[in-house]
What we know:
Helix content: 10-25%
Number of strands: 9
Number of helices: 2
Strand content: 35-45%
Order of helices and strands: HEEEEEEEEEH
Radius of gyration: 18 Å
Structural class: alpha+beta
Distance between the termini: 68 Å
Amino acid sequence: TSLDAKVDGIEIGGRNYWAIAKKAWHFYLEHQGNGIFTNTTTSSAFAIFRMDKLGVPVGETYTVSFEINVSDDAIQFQNDTFYVNGASPSTKHNKPTLVKDKWVRVYATFNYTVENTGIVHIYISGIPSINSFQIRRFQLEKGNKVTDWTPAPEDVEAEINTVKTDVATLTTNY
């Protein structure tokens, strides 16, 4: 039946490949710490990250998601295009209405067909200045369904190593 086909077509990944530790973000974003990034440009063709730096297999379906918080209600998506170099074809995101001082989730599913140094873009209009919006909770997972955000294993490991270093420093100093 068509219901069976829909259920059989669901793919859920569960592992977040978008690790801060991999430093895949584009220079249009600046990492502020704690997984929060801010814009460094007012360009409407807003580059987010490079797929090749994430080391994910080509020929798979992926879902990307993140949350965005704007400082001005005039900042909105110009369109629903989620452009991925190496994806065929580019895809559409959910194009939510952006609301001042509220975290809003954005997501898109795409087929990653050709590995290259291309950059993933979204299109935002009305950006008045740098530092006028923030993005957090990046997630890239295999499959065609968006799931709740979880940190990438590499980022969890980096946090554990930071705590170990801090404890070792405290132990040595005291």
